[in-house]
Amino acid sequence: MDENLRREIILDNYKEPYNKGLIDDNSYIKVNTNSESCIDNLDFIMKIENDIIKDIRFDGEACAISTSASSIMIRSLIGKKVSDAYNILSNYKNMINEEEYDSSVLGELIVYNEIAKQPNRKNCALLPLVAVEKILKELINNDR
């Protein structure tokens, strides 16, 4: 990917993140995720109906990478079946960890395909994934 385009996508999603701001609605599952190594501290809420991710929102304080990754991930997951979300998340995690992944399912999340060159930023890029996985795990536990 062109470095200027990568930078533009990340900065646009940092300056004007998609779905930033929480709403008060008990039909959403809420989790907090934070980094032990920096200021990143984000709350995520997600609404799932009939196995479809209807909405995800986030808020908090975070660096450009965590904020932009949250914004892009949210746009990538809304409207997807939970199984498709797991596929996206798995491939995203593999990409960040320099393991084999399918780039065709990642969309704009591909902008982080070189984040491993900055190992201290990997946790920032993974923070929204951790939040979404927590929500999905809570959803599975509540369905039992």
Helix content: 40-55%
Structural class label: alpha+beta
Distance between the termini: 43 Å
Strand order of the largest sheet: 1-2-3
| Uncertain stretches of 5 or more adjacent residues | none
**How many beta-strand runs?**
3
What is the total domain count? 1
H/I helix tally: 4
Give me the CATH architecture, please: Alpha-Beta Complex
Q: For the record, what CATH class applies?
A: Alpha Beta
Overall average pLDDT: 94
Computed over alpha carbons, the radius of gyration is 14 Å
Give a written overview of the molecule.
With 144 residues, the chain is an alpha+beta fold. The chain has one domain (3-143): Sufe protein. Chain: A (Alpha-Beta Complex), CATH 3.90.1010. The protein has 4 helices and 3 strands. It has a 3-stranded antiparallel beta sheet with strand order 1-2-3, with helices on one face. Helix 1 packs across helix 2, helix 2 (64-77) packs across helix 4 and helix 3 packs antiparallel against helix 4. The radius of gyration is 14 Å and the shape is globular.
Descriptive tags:
Sufe protein. Chain: A, alpha+beta, 144 residues
In short:
The chain has four helices and three strands, in the order H-E-E-E-H-H-H. The chain is α+β, with helices and mostly antiparallel strands and about 140 residues long. The protein has one domain: Sufe protein. Chain: A, CATH 3.90.1010.
Topology of this structure?
Elements lengths: L2 H13 L13 E6 L6 E9 L2 E10 L2 H14 L4 H15 L25 H22 L1
Helix pairs in contact: 1-2, 2-4, 3-4
